[in-house]
Amino acid sequence: MNVLVRNASMLITCAGDSRPRAGASANDLAIIRQGSVVVRDGRIAWVGEDRHLPAGLAECREADAGGMVVTPGLVDCHTHALFAGSRAGEFAMRVAGATYEQIMAEGGGISASARMLREAPDGDIVDQTVGRLRRMLRLGTTTCEIKSGYGLSTDQELRSLRLIRQTSHRVPMSIVPTFMGAHALPPPWRHDRAGFIDMVVHEMLPRVADEKLARFCDVFCERGAFTVDESRRVLEAARGHGMGLKIHADELAGSGGTRLGAELGVCSADHLLRATREDLQALRDSGAIAVILPGTCLGLGKTAFAPGRMMVEIGLPVAIASDLNPGNCYCENLPLMVTLACLYGGLSIEEALIGVTVNAAHALGLAREVGSLEVGKRGDLVIWDIDDYREIAYHFGVQLARTVIVGGAHSD
Ligand SMILES: [Zn+2]
To answer: How many angstroms separate the alpha carbon of residue 388 from the centre of ligand 1?
Structure first.
């Protein structure tokens, strides 16, 4: 598809260093005033000041962005968007002061999502997920990672990943599938933890790899979920199958997940609320991206947030994602996460915008494809109904994206 977006008052290109952005480069949005972008055959063919626009582009459909801001399409690099049903009742219990144990006793938590997933027909799960992805798209997200993890059995995990593939054919968005078989220990395995890990390693992973159902493998390394040694077994096996690695690390307690991520060379380590400065330095030295998920803190009603400022200060590249999930963060709004990362993570607005574009693309291994407006990359961009990019953080929680273009095509 061809499109010409003209005359943006601020064209936020995020162009520059091909490496993840840390330090000063995380504050440089590479803004072009009165900027235009040409997308041809789905790829960016030209970017620059409108007055330098080459002649002979008349065949392009034209979109006037006069007085508005244009950014790259946003990249949401951590979601659990594939799930069935609602846990609103559980949310109401939490609001009324119920403890996690009480909620579990009522059949809540991940096992509630696992039950609803198992009982729902494929079509319903796909329709519900597509609805969420469309909301994300309207708000500006054009690339989205989705994890499995509510299956808790080989058949349901494979089914989840196949359904993620089906949803990707229904939404004009780039979807990155991640296998997360080790999300929670199902109750029947409570007395045979090693047996469950054996099943993930010897049964699930080979079949996921055979069917090429996932680009990444993730694991919930946390007190109450999986230990460092269990997580290591899963991730090492996944690496043997050629998958990229991710880890949910040090969210609720300092459990060693960040160090493990650094040791194994993960592409990203996510959450990191309880990671120490030394943990984060090890992560930096390993070349990983730190993904912070401030919506989860909001959804849990917690006041603790990941130390975003410390990450930036030590030169660790930071990405921000929604963590969209049915338990503690049912929110499709990635721009809102930008606001939260600024207010509670201590990031500058520029650092936060780099966190949902370039650095998020790196967290998915897609930095050559998406995350900035540079010649050759996918024609994914957002025209925002604002005249200053800082409004994205400042004016929060509402619809500011006016037009979302994916691969040169309007998504609406
Ligand atoms: Zn998560």
So the answer is: 32
Instruction: Indicate if 285 and 353 belong to the same structural domain.
Output: yes
Cα 79 to middle of ligand 1, angstroms: 6
Query: CA torsion sign, 329 to 330 to 333 to 339?
Result: negative
Cα 364 to ligand 1 centre (Å): 14
Distance CA 130, CA 166 (A): 10
Long-range contacts of 122-127 (CB under 8 A, 24+ apart): 122/159, 122/163, 122/166, 124/84, 125/82, 125/83, 125/84, 125/163, 126/163, 126/166, 126/167, 126/170
CA–centroid distance, 330 to ligand 1, in Å, is 12
**What is the distance in A from the centroid of ligand 1 to the CA of 80?**
6
Indicate the pLDDT class of residue 226, thresholds 50, 70 and 90.
very high
pLDDT band at 343 (very low <50, low <70, confident <90, very high): very high
Using the 3D structure, point to which of 331, 346, 363 is the last residue of a domain: 363
Q: Give the domain range for residue 265.
A: 75-363
Q: Are both 291 and 401 inside the same structural domain?
A: no
What does the mean pLDDT of the chain come to?
95
Residue 366 neighbours by CB under 8 Å, 6+ apart: 75, 143, 174, 176
